[in-house]
Amino acid sequence: MARSTTTHRCSECGWTTTRWVGRCGQCQAWGSLAEASSAAPTRSTSSTRPSQPAQPITQVNAQHARGIKTGIGELDRVLGDGLVPGAVVLLGGEPGVGKSTLLLEAAARWASQGRRTLYVTAEESAAQVRSRADRTTALHDELYLAAESDLGVILGHIEDLSPTLLVLDSVQTVQAAGTDGVAGGVSQVREVTNALVRTAKRRGMAVLIIGHVTKDGALAGPRTLEHLVDVVLAFEGERHGAFRMVRASKNRYGPADEVGCFEMTESGIREVPDPSGLFTSGRGPTPGTCVTVSLEGRRPLVAEVQALVVPTSLTQPRRVTHGLDMSRVTMTLAVLQRRAKHKLHTRDVYASTVGGVRLSDPSADLALAIAVASAMRDDEPRGRMVAIGEVGLSGEVRRVPALGRRLAEAARLGFERAIVPAGSGKDAVAAGLAVVEVLTLEDALAAAFGPPRTNVVPIDGRELA
């Protein structure tokens, strides 16, 4: 006999409890718990004979995990080596960033290689997608289009067409009959994703899924959604800017920290195979700026950090960042104040990157510190230089990985000097670059600005220390 139990389930995140409470214990939403009665079976699961026997790992064919090129080099770079048959890829991003445009282009490139492709849109009409395809020249006879939001009908299309690639836009707008909740709810998203994963593995069909994000930038829906799929990609960029970046946060078939660069144009999305130089102002050394070389996956990326320091009349000075990690900016400012004697507690500090790029690499700490000091002194760094290094709380400059590749990229773009952590050794050897090794932040500032100039006046007319 099965005993009946009464539980209360949160409609936002799926959290359950045996008694009703006003606030969800997981997502903290108010009034989201509803009563749900379920029968808890008491019998145990019996063993069954497997359909296929287990085999030695040496006899498993590794060719089944080989990727197939999509035709978009930057997307293939992030995926590892193209799309693996049977892989399920989840692409998330803010509204209007270009997710549908990118995957429509990928579907058209895939179809142009003679592979049947099915594009399912659950948000737009077929005419709207066709209009976008006309604008971006993403048309091919092997690219099939269906405007459906019912999971059963979508699976029927897959059985009829037998595509090698399925693009679904989006998982939050598809509904599975017989599953509780509305489209986009926890149960619905979980069931739709489970069905697509089972179908992809059974048929050897690659699946690209578009997912919505919350206002905090996290993927909407249950956390298990990211565990079910094989690859999780984030499409980043400003809606009013031209540049976009695809970043992998999970990848079972390749590196999980790779980045691809794209540019949005009137005729669609264009890949940028050499993004270095796009994230610098190109004006040369000016007060409040410093260039660094970040490592995004295996790709060195030259980016410029800008800072503005102004006196404040507020008790709590402002700290505003764009494209930089706020916690690392705050820590770097504290080190500048304590170790380099820059009085920042009476000044507002604004720090930003150029071109909308987001720098999470700790190697950008040193460039940020030099940019803030440059704005504080109203003095530009000497010559065309890059600064690479992580700043510690005691003021030391720590080594960073792959320094040789970073310096080679800076030399290729015509930079003359580089300030790097001490002890870099042979990694600091780069053709055409004068490399300066520093132990502390004070040494780095001395190398960046040289002897103090007598005609430099601080922004408030007082001494720095």
Automatic annotation (TrEMBL):
Q: What would you give as a GO molecular function for this chain, any one?
A: ATP-dependent DNA damage sensor activity
Domain RecA family profile, chain residue ranges per copy: 64-213
Entry keywords, A to Z = ATP-binding, DNA damage, DNA repair, DNA-binding, Hydrolase, Metal-binding, Nucleotide-binding, Stress response, Zinc, Zinc-finger
Q: Where is this region: Disordered?
A: 38-59
Indicate which residues form the motif RadA KNRFG motif: 250-254
Source domain of life:
Bacteria
Supply one GO CC term from the record: cytosol
- Residue positions binding ATP: 93-100
Annotated region (Lon-protease-like) at: 348-465
Composition bias, Low complexity: 38-56
One of its Pfam families is Zn_ribbon_LapB
Which Gene3D superfamilies is this protein grouped with? Answer: 3.30.230.10, P-loop containing nucleotide triphosphate hydrolases (3.40.50.300)
Q: Which SUPFAM superfamilies match?
A: P-loop containing nucleoside triphosphate hydrolases, Ribosomal protein S5 domain 2-like
Keyword check for Zinc-finger:
yes
Q: Does the keyword RNA-binding apply?
A: no
- Biological process per Gene Ontology, one example term: recombinational repair
Family per similarity comment: Belongs to the RecA family. RadA subfamily.
NCBIfam families to which the protein is assigned, alphabetical: sms (TIGR00416)
Q: What is this protein called?
A: DNA repair protein RadA
Gene for this chain: radA
